[in-house]
């Protein structure tokens, strides 16, 4: 059975050529486009089963922000990254953003199709040696001083960092307020600011993002003594 696909790549000619090849193999291609500011919105609106998203610089900070947005709005869409021979860091960044796999630009169409089928089935679509390197990067996020965890940590005030740590520990608003010596309404406001800065919609997503990026390791233990209501 064919797969409902979208192909998004910096080079429109490559995107259209790949889309044509996949159509000939029985797949339904909803769109083939060059990634612009609205690429993520286009994928979200069309809701394909699998999106093939090209990139020339997989290790560049922020490169996979569209993937994060797609997975947040349409978690059922499997995103396959198309890129050059990557570094483990590039693979790790793709998986950390929520991608289902990584396919090299020089892969044969048969290999691309196998990756598509794996991604649709919920499997990791990446060569074993690349996956091993990615896992190493994900398990040791502190090795990179400019990684996503450090970037997110710099966005938060010390008070918000403490709130995030408490959220990750499973504390509700009442416990956060009691532990920090602030009013529940103030604690609730802090939580909402943390969610907004991290770009997530729930406490669970915030905790997952913090754990995945190593932000919690950098934050350190919370101060359990009650402080002034700020």
From TrEMBL:
Residues 149-214 form the HTH luxR-type domain. GO terms for molecular function: DNA binding. Keywords: DNA-binding, Transcription, Transcription regulation. It comes from the Bacteria. The keyword Oxidoreductase does not apply. The keyword Transcription applies. Residues 4-120 form the Response regulatory domain. This is DNA-binding NarL/FixJ family response regulator. It comes from Streptomyces pseudovenezuelae. The lineage of its organism: Bacteria, Bacillati, Actinomycetota, Actinomycetes, Kitasatosporales.
